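RECORD TYPE: inverse folding
INPUT: structure tokens
STRUCTURE:
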């Protein structure tokens, strides 16, 4: 009885974490911290600092401490910059323990969680669309800040920001929800449910359009390709690739089809300016990096402009955590992809195979979007990304154990 009540507690908290991602950019941070504090008290099993991905998160904790020792910097003049990534990756490690040691979920339970996340994500789509038609105001007040309705860096922009305070982050969230729509349409039982699920894909695409993000379409195309590729149908993957690339080029290059003021060339010019100076920061701190937030300070010293990150996931990790961090992140991506494929092949049912495909498609969609931005550094998108990775490894280990023991 005590075990059952503990399981229910663990399940409710992880479900609440997923829902909090959709509601606010602030709430998931509070929930993640609460999970981290509670983990030692509710998870009594043996913990490990080895394995995937917990070993990677623990390695990033150590790397962050070393990086700060070589490049000490105080954020706001009093907070050591190393505290932030150490805390973040420490919490990701504890989240992995929570999922792998505490929940021990079957794939069906993971499926239910993601379908709940998808249905709840309709709230984000409607908020984003309603912002576009001015049904939801974006005044600067405490409530709108907590709900993510206030555009932190785009106060005069026509682009919707959903519940993320930023249009590109809202777009990243929406492409993940759109990918889950495709998954839902393939696993739901009734025909009417399948049609409704497929229809929500276009609703999420409409919401992505309202954000004015160009990079999101690249991420969505890559995610769709990976999801179809994971079904094993190569012909369908090639045809989808050609169709999506053609549609993507039309959307990406046509200024009138995306609600934003900047032309493609103007945006590209700004990105190249950021990437060039980010690379310069990397070459000066190539081994251990400079850590998040310190990057912005160095970028301002170099250019006179402050930017939070390098607007590219590879350059972002390289500048913040150096070559060692880039190797850790690259290894995590490769191993996660391999394990998702092995899990898909070992899974006995079509639904479980599709779940593996959906989760790895979310990872690659955010990586694709990250070629133009750096979304996984934000709490909401970072949690979606890391949770997909954690779930893949947890289900891979469970599936392989069951197969070997059988």
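DESIGNED SEQUENCE:
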């Amino acid at each position: 009885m005590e075990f059952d009540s503990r399981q229910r507690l663990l399940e409710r908290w992880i479900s609440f974490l997923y829902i909090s991602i959709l509601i606010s950019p602030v709430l998931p941070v509070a929930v993640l911290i609460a999970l981290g504090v509670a983990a030692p008290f509710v998870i009594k099993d043996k913990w490990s600092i080895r394995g995937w991905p917990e070993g990677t998160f623990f390695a990033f904790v150590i790397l962050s401490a070393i990086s700060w020792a070589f490049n000490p910097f105080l954020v706001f003049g009093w907070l050591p910059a190393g505290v932030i990534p150490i805390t973040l990756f420490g919490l990701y490690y504890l989240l992995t323990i929570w999922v792998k040691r505490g929940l021990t979920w079957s794939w069906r339970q993971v499926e239910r969680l993601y379908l709940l996340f998808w249905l709840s994500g309709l709230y984000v789509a409607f908020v984003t669309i309603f912002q576009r038609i001015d049904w939801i105001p974006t005044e600067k007040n405490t409530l709108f800040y907590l709900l993510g309705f206030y555009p932190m860096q785009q106060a005069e922009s026509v682009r919707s920001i959903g519940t993320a305070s930023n249009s590109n982050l809202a777009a990243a969230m929406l492409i993940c929800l759109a990918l889950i729509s495709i998954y839902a349409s393939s696993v739901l039982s009734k025909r009417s449910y399948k049609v409704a699920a497929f229809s929500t894909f276009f609703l999420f695409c409409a919401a992505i359009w309202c954000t004015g993000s160009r990079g999101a379409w690249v991420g969505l195309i890559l995610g769709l390709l990976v999801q179809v590729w994971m079904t094993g149908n190569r012909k369908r993957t090639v045809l989808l690739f050609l169709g999506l690339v053609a549609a993507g080029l039309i959307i990406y290059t046509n200024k009138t089809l995306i609600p934003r003021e900047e032309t493609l060339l103007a945006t590209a010019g700004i990105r190249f300016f950021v990437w060039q100076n980010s690379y310069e920061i990397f070459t000066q701190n190539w081994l251990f990096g400079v850590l998040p937030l310190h990057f912005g300070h160095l970028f301002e010293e170099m250019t006179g402009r402050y930017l939070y990150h390098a607007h590219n996931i590879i350059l972002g990790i390289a500048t913040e955590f150096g070559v060692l961090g880039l190797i850790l992140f690259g290894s995590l991506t490769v191993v996660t992809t391999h394990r998702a494929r092995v899990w898909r092949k070992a899974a006995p049912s079509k639904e479980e195979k599709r779940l593996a495909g959906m989760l790895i498609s979310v990872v690659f969609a955010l990586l694709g979007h990250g070629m133009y931005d750096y979304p996984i550094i934000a709490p909401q998108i970072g949690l979606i990304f890391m949770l997909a990775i954690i779930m893949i490894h947890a289900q891979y280990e469970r599936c392989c154990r069951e197969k070997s023991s059988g």
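NOTES: The beta strands are 74-75, 79-80.
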